[in-house]
Design goal:
binds adenosine-5'-triphosphate, 9 helices, alpha/beta, Rossmann fold, 4-stranded antiparallel beta sheet
Length: 253
């Protein structure tokens, strides 16, 4: 059974059909990149999986369970984590405290007194930071970190509730090319180790073709193609769809 199964979802905004009858699946341990030119419906699809938007029709299943239209918090509780285009951390807290806050939330104790974050499951927080290569920076304030490191902390925070599926919305936006690949290599290792699925939207073709196991291409709200990076790169329809968008379907050296 697929970890995530999207079955014919559609969504319109007024007269604009943003997503039209889109179906695809994602297995545990797999990285699936959702790509497409601007306005193709990537964010809308993503938000229908995360619960920020309810589909007009179609179903979304997580390990067979119908999660269509559930609110984001309920979907998160069922094991769907999320990172954002602009990393969200508390700048005034240390790296470890940020992860401890995420652990508090996972333990349903987010309303506990803030000062207790520093005392909550520090060893578990440090273990998560070890996984993302940030253990040595545990006691630095997040405000002092380079942006690429903030993204790693955000990843550790997203892992705090042990998601089965991680949604990463343009995870490498704003990062230097080398850092982008490194972040997604890390996500890939963690996905394999935890048998966690990762669905991500991405504009950087280096990341897509270098790191994704499979790629789904949306164009004008419809699924145009789905396959391995090689199949997608060789697909004439995909090349045609990208013509004139300024994006190149080549992995740069
Ligand atoms: N809340 C909304 N209200 C009205 N129209 C919307 C809304 N959200 C998205 N759209 C429209 O739906 C279509 C798909 O948008 P969406 O943001 O899903 O595309 P995208 O592939 O994520 O684009 P980008 O790469 O530019 O982020 C676009 O035509 C967009 O203008």
């Amino acid at each position: 059974m697929s970890l995530l199964q999207i079955e014919g979802i559609s969504k319109s905004f007024g007269g604009v059909q943003a997503v039209r009858n889109v179906s695809f699946g994602l297995q545990a341990g797999e990285l699936l990149a959702l790509i497409g030119p601007n306005g193709a419906g990537k964010s809308t699809t993503f938000n229908m999986v995360g619960g920020q938007l309810a589909p007009d029709s179609g179903r979304v299943r997580l390990a067979g369970r119908d999660i269509t239209g559930l609110p984001p918090r309920a979907i998160w509780r069922l094991g769907v984590g999320r990172t954002f285009q602009i990393a969200q951390t508390f700048a005034s807290l240390t790296v470890a405290e940020n992860v401890q806050m995420a652990l508090l939330s996972a333990d349903r104790r987010i309303f506990a007194w803030w000062s207790r974050a520093a005392a909550h499951r520090r060893a578990d927080a440090l273990a998560l930071l070890e996984q993302v290569g940030m253990r040595a920076q545990a006691d630095r304030p997040c405000s002092e970190l380079a942006y690429g490191d903030v993204k790693r902390v955000e990843l550790a925070m997203a892992l705090a509730h042990g998601p089965r599926l991680l949604l990463m919305d343009e995870p490498t936006a704003g990062m230097a090319p080398g850092e982008r690949v490194a972040l997604m290599q890390l996500a890939r290792c963690i996905a394999r180790e935890r048998q966690m699925g990762v669905l991500f939207t991405e504009h950087s073709m280096d990341v897509v073709f270098g790191q994704a196991d499979r790629v789904a291409v949306l164009v004008r709200g419809q699924l145009l193609a789905e396959g391995t990076p090689q199949q997608i790169r060789d697909d004439a329809r995909v090349q045609q769809a990208y013509l004139g968008t300024g994006l190149v379907l080549e992995k740069s050296a």
